[in-house]
Every structure is written in C-alpha cells, then in structure tokens.
Design brief:
This protein is an all-alpha fold. The protein is 55% helix and 0% strand. The chain has a domain of 39 residues. It is elongated. The mean pLDDT is 86.
Length: 96
C-alpha cells in the first residue's frame, strides 16, 4: 500500500486518494459491498469519468505538495486550493 510516515489527517487523506486513484485507474468500477452486482458508475459518461479522475489527480498532487511543505501556512493554502475557502488557513500562535 502507501506507507504513511506520520499519522495525521493529511497523510491519511493523501494515502486514501492515492489508493483510490490507483484502483480506479486500473478499472473504473465501484460496486456496493452489500449488492456487489450493482455497479455505481456504470452509467457515467466518458466526460464525467475523465472529470472525476482529473479532480482526483489534482487532489493527489495538491496533497503531495502540502505534505512536502515545511511552512504550515503555505501547506494550508494547498488544501484551500482543493477544498475552497471553507478550509481554514493555518494560524500561528505566539507563546506569551
């Protein structure tokens, strides 16, 4: 799988996105666990599939950039690029 060197939400999300990308790139199928014969993406058009995969690729790229970033403010800006303005920008706290 994808090794996680730190244990936090950022790493978990990045690893999950990479695993999803790998699986869906090999075979674009998503079945319900309780009804394995029901394929959830069978009616998706090529355009819808491509758009989804492009957004997933963007998530993986931004996640990798955020994880490499040493400055927490800049890292949070990478996540804002993905999730929008509702995602909080990191705020520094000064010791009193």
């Amino acid at each position: 799988m994808y090794p996680i060197t730190r244990i936090d939400d950022d790493d978990a999300l990045a690893a999950s996105a990479k695993a999803i990308r790998k699986t869906l790139s090999a075979t674009f199928l998503l079945t319900k666990l309780v009804f394995p014969s029901e394929e959830l993406m069978s009616d998706w058009s090529d355009t819808r599939r491509d758009n989804f995969l492009n957004k997933l690729e963007n998530l993986v790229e931004k996640a990798e950039e955020a994880l490499k970033e040493t400055d927490k403010i800049n890292a949070s800006k990478k996540w804002i690029d993905v999730f929008g303005d509702r995602f909080p920008e990191h705020e520094t706290t000064e010791a009193a």
